[in-house]
Amino acid sequence: MTKKHVMAISYQPKIEPVKDGRCTQTIRKGHRVDVGDEILFHGWVGRPYRSKWNWRLRVVVKESIRILISNTGISFPDKVIKIMWSDHECAWLAALDFIEPSTGPALRDVLFKLNGGKPPAESEVHLYQIIRW
Fold first, then answer.
1. What is the CA radius of gyration of the chain?
2. CB atoms within 10 A of CB 14
């Protein structure tokens, strides 16, 4: 059974690309979204969570990839591969996510900032997912 999700897009460089269809990826903490689910993306008129929505976009999820994020990089739960933040694969993910600049370290900083404001402790690993529509 497909689920319906509501997600805000608040990272400024990503808003217009999501609205006009150039950006079709978001990376979110946890793993709640599956292929076939619907997401209603929206933006805010003013301060996030304190103002009305000013746009909406409904999409169907085509791909959901579980990833593990740590201070040192990205890994996959079912693979031995580890991608360091400085590797070109992280820069590629950053570009798909419209992170400015499109680098792995910038992607890391945005993910940490949007999910609690600080990087995980040295040995901590957090489950995230790459969602594409």
1. 15
2. 19
Strands 4-8 and 53-60: unpaired
Contact present, 7 and 28 (Cβ < 8 Å)? yes
Contact predicate 71/119, CB 8 Å = yes
Instruction: Give dist(CA 58, CA 87) in Å, integer.
Output: 33
CATH number of 4-132: 2.30.130.30
Find out whether 45 and 53 touch, Cβ atoms under 8 Å.
yes
Alpha carbon dihedral 94, 100, 103, 107, in 10-degree steps, equals -60
Task: Tell me the per-residue pLDDT of 83-122, one tens digit each, with 9 for 90 and over.
Answer: 999 999 999 999 999 999 999 999 999 999 887 667 777 7
Parse the chain into domains and list their residue ranges. Answer: 4-132
